[in-house]
Structures are given as structure tokens and as C-alpha cells.
Amino acid sequence: MHAGTEVVPYERPQPTAGIHRMAFVVFRQEVRQAIYAPGWRSNFVTRDLAECYCLGAPVAAAYFNCQREGSCGGRRWQG
């Protein structure tokens, strides 16, 4: 069984306008070490975090787009 410590709690996407891109990236830690939350979330660079903690390449990732509920605008698919 694997155990871990939540470093930064999940916050549901709450875009105010436009389409936002979200990514979840999972790394395998080779050694137990403390990972500290970044001081910001906007324009976060995952590669820099991985380099800082010697995490190597991601082992899994998920990506999605979202926009504000009831929002208009953005790209439309024309079928």
C-alpha cells in the first residue's frame, strides 16, 4: 500500500471567463522527502518542481479544458 501527504489541497476549477486548461501530473518519489507547496498556482511550471525535487519524468497525467458554467464565448464546434 502506498501512502502520501497532501501538499496542496484540491480546488475545483472556477474560471471567471474564457476556456481554462487544467492538468494533473503524478510523479513517483524514489526517496521519501518533504515536498513544499508553491507560493502560487498561476503559470506554475511543473518541470521546475520536478527538477527542484529530483522527481524525474511524470508517471501519469490528466488534462482537461473547462469554462465558467453558463458561459458563452470560446470556440464552438461546427458539425
Describe it for me?
By secondary structure, the protein is mainly beta. Helix content is 9%, strand content 20%. It has one helix and two strands. Strands 1-2 form a two-stranded antiparallel ribbon. The longest helix has 7 residues. The relative contact order is 0.32. The mean pLDDT is 80.
Q: Which secondary structure elements does this structure contain, and how are they paired or packed?
A:
Layout: E1 19-26, H1 46-52, E2 60-67
Antiparallel strand pairs: 1-2
Counting helices, strands and paired strands, the structural category is mainly beta
Number of helices: 1
Strand percent estimate: 15-25%
User: Number of DSSP strands?
Assistant: 2
What is the helix fraction of residues, given as a range?
under 10%
| N- and C-termini, Cα separation | 47 Å
Query: What is the string of helix and strand elements?
Result: EHE
pLDDT averaged over residues: 80
Shape: elongated
- The side-by-side strand order for the widest beta sheet comes to 1-2
Name the quaternary structure. Answer: single chain
Radius of gyration, in Å, reads 16 Å
Uncertain runs with pLDDT below 50, 5 residues or more? none
Sheet having the most strands = 2 strands, antiparallel
